[in-house]
Amino acid sequence: LVTIAEELRGLQENLGDYAARQARVKELEHACDDITHSLVTQMHATFVTPLDKEDIAALAKGMDDVADE
């Protein structure tokens, strides 16, 4: 999310890089989807987690929603 925000800030500062930054943000959003999927898969395979599974899922979903926007 931090990297996506940095790309968006860079886009505001230099619109000439629009196509490259847009592609990079899209790439990062897909990477976030992969991370979220992996986290959910690992969470369901783990019997005991350091936090409640519902909290982990809510945090992952919230972060993924931010990346999607």
What does this entry look like structurally?
There is one protein chain. The chain is mostly helical and 69 residues long. It has 3 helices and no strands. Helix 1 runs antiparallel to helix 2 (18-45) and helix 2 packs antiparallel against helix 3.
Break the fold down into its secondary structure elements and pairings:
Elements: H1 2-13, H2 18-45, H3 53-68
Give descriptors for this structure:
69 residues, mainly alpha, 0% strand
Number of strands: 0
Which term fits the overall shape? elongated
Into which percentage range does the β-strand content fall?
Answer: under 5%
Low-confidence stretches: none
The percent range for helix content is over 70%
Kindly state the mean pLDDT as a whole number? 90
Radius of gyration: 15 Å
Task: List the total number of helices.
Answer: 3
N-to-C SSE string, H for helix and E for strand: HHH
In this structure, how is the largest beta sheet organized? none
Provide the structure class. Answer: mainly alpha
Distance from N terminus to C terminus (CA atoms, Å) equals 11 Å
Describe what is shown at a glance:
By secondary structure, the chain is mostly helical.
